[in-house]
Structure formats: C-alpha cells, structure tokens
Amino acid sequence: MIIRKRLAAGVCALFAALAGGVVPANAADGPPKKDSPKVELVLDVSGSMRARDVDGDTRMAAAQQAFNEVIDAVPQGVRLGIRTLGATYAGEDKETGCRDSKQLYPVGPVDRTEAKAAVATLRPTGWTPIGYALRGADQDLGTDGGTRRIVLITDGEDSCGLPDPCDVARELAAKGTHLTVDTLGLTQDDKTREQLTCIAEATGGTYTTVRHRKELSGRIKQLVRRADTPVETPQPTQGANACSAAPVIGAGVWTDREQFSEHRWYRVKVKPGQELRASVSVGADRPVDRDYGVLVRAVSEGGQELVRGSDAGNGRTDVMASGLRYPVGKAKKDSDKAARTVCLEVSHSFSAPPSVKREPGLPVELAVDLVKSPDDPSDLAAFGLGRGWVLLAVLGVTGLLAGLLWGWLARWRVAVWREN
To answer: How far apart are CA 381 and CA 306, in angstroms?
Structure first.
C-alpha cells in the first residue's frame, strides 16, 4: 500500500512539473546577449596527437574528454565555438596540409549534445597550421561586441612556417579588437614552449604546459570562465631596490620585470580600517633550474616585518605565486587617522643555466587590493602569525588542553569500568 501511494505521488509530481513548463537544461538557459563574451577553442588534430602519453591514453582522447567537461561547464553568458587544425588532410602536399583548418562548431549559444557529437568525430590526421588557424579563429569570433578569446591547444609547434604564428598573433593584436590568445602545450620541448609563449605574450594571454587530462580540463574551464569576468588591465610600474625609493602604488594590477637574485620594493598607503591584500606571481618565460620559490613581505617604514607569504617548488613550471593579508585597525585617536605606509618586497629564487638570457627580467604581476578591515583586527597577520611565534604558542596551548581532556576521559572510562 505504501509503495503504491508513493508511486502515485511520484506520477502526480511528474505531471505537475510537466504542466509547469519544466524543460531540458539546454532550452532553459537563455540565449547570451549580443555583446556577451566569445571564446573559440582551437584544437590541434594533427597526426602527432596519436601519441599515448597523457595518463596512459592518447593526447587526442585526453583532449576530447577534457572538451566534454568544458562543454558541460560553459557559463550561460558565454558564446563558445570550436575550430580544428590538421583534422582532414593526411597527405604529403604541404600547401594543402597548411590550409587544413575549419570551424567544427560555430560561435554562439552551446547545444551540449551537438558540440559533444562534433568533438567525438575527431581523429588525429594531418599537419599543424597554427598561424592559418589563428586567422580563421579571429574571423569566427567576428567584431559585433563583447570580449574575444582564443584558447589554442596543441602538442607541437607550427609545421608550416608561413604564416608565422608569432607574426599572426602580433597582426591580430594590432587590429585593436580586444583579442586575447591563451596557449596550452601538451608537450614540453623548448621550441614549442617558445612559440606558444610568443603567441600568448603578443596578445596579452597566457601560456601553460599541461601533462594530465584534469590539468587540461581545469585550465580550459578557467580560461572560459575568465572570459565571462571583467579583467582589469595591468598597469606597468618599476620597483626600486629599497623601500625609501619605491614607487607608491594603489589598488589594481601592476606589472614589472625582475632580474635573477633581484629584490623589488613598492609602497602602498593603507588607511585605518583597511586591510591590504597583495598577491604576486612570477612567470618562468624561459628555461630555468628545477628549484625555485617566490617571497612577498609587508614591511613597515622602520624596517619591521609585518607579515610574509611564500611558496616554493621544483620541476617544470610556468608561474609561481604567493600572497599576504595585513589589516590595520580603526583609528582611536585623531593622530592615528593618517594613512600608514606599507612597503612590499618581492623576490624570487629562480635561477638558470649560463646559456639562458638574463634580459629582460622575469615577468612579475602584483595584484593589490584594499578592503574593509575586520571590526576587531585580531587577524592572524596583525598579530604577526606570519613570523611563527604566535602559531607556536597557539599550537602549544591547544596540545596541552587536548592532552588534559584526553587524560581525564581515559581516567573516567577506567573508573566506570572498575565500578561495573
């Protein structure tokens, strides 16, 4: 009886939902506006994508799985398209092979079923005409408003020579149509890295090496979401070698260059009741040694360290980042209302073989934000937790209390056992 009643209730609920106009997810999503952001994924489908070195699977299979995940996660306001290169011509004629690029899925609202079906048909085939494909992707995106982003996924450098992909990227950037090209490399050879870095830097994009399917999927989804988020244009600055001579910077994103073994200083004015949040990233745009790290410190004008943030790693990398927070309490006296100067010191421990160029320095991006400070700025950073002694005291007291509590519980259990 109970089962019958539940079944009847479920059927009634289903009919009620249908009557209320429940529709599939694809139809429920409203179409993106005309000026909404546009993204085109450009996928290398050349013969080298048959290589089986991504989590035990072929590069092509890993890319297809990643694309399916990306298609499922496309934000509602983004218009997405897909273009391939090297997908149809397997012959030896270079002229034909170097024009082998076509749009697989048009830029617009995403029908997930159709887009996935199109991706599933791809098989590694031909050449790698990256420059030609970039020009085609630029035309696919059009100029009807909205931000424009190309995400290029390839496992090697251009195999055609002309048009040169770097020259094409500069040509597209010179049009002034707000186009950004991000590049993802599935291999780690220096020639591919150099070419993809050149393409990205020419248009204000990023280059990333990916070795696993989850990395590929996560990075593409991140770039697609970024297209839907307003991005602040970085402002160039030049740090000094001491706090007293450092430039004063405010909230925003700042770019600089830092030589190997160099320290750069910047100054930020923090008012009472504000919290300083700073993050720094240092890009490895050339071959570097396997061990590296980055450090950012907040220091008072008198030289006292307020708080620090650091990170380190080893192996191949494209960027290393760290950050910090420093809150300033509200003014209690009129004499305390003046803004406080906080000096930010940025340094890194990247090194490179003697054959690697030193000029210009490694690219540095410093993001600064000033937000409302907590009502009671007993923040970890405010008490110098970054220096370690408060953390040690907190852990010591916590361990002592935990030990006492555990001992008391153990004695209580023994007493109860003896009594019973």
So the answer is: 7
Give the model's confidence band at 4: pLDDT under 50 very low, under 70 low, under 90 confident, else very high.
Answer: very low
Asked whether residue 245 falls in the same domain as residue 362, the answer is yes
Q: Beta-strand (E) ranges in 248-290?
A: 252-258, 263-270, 274-283
For residues 249 and 334, the model is more confident at 249
CB 100 within 8 A of CB 89: yes
* CA–CA distance, 266 with 243 (Å, rounded to integer): 7
Do both 277 and 358 map to the same domain? yes
Q: How do beta strands 305-314 and 319-327 pair?
A: unpaired
Q: Is the pLDDT of residue 21 over 90?
A: no
Say which residues have a Cβ less than 8 Å from residue 128's Cβ, sequence separation at least 6: 44, 46, 48, 85, 86, 154, 156, 157, 158, 159, 160
Beta-strand relationship, 235-236 and 252-258: parallel
Answer yes or no: do 169 and 271 share one domain. Answer: no
Which residue is listed with tokens 């790693």?
313
User: Angle of helix 59-72 relative to helix 213-227, nearest 10 degrees?
Assistant: 40
Q: What band does 385 get if pLDDT is binned at 50, 70 and 90?
A: very low
83 and 108 belong to one structural domain: yes
Q: Is the CB of residue 233 less than 8 Å from the CB of residue 213?
A: no
Question: Mean pLDDT over residues 75-87, rounded?
Answer: 88
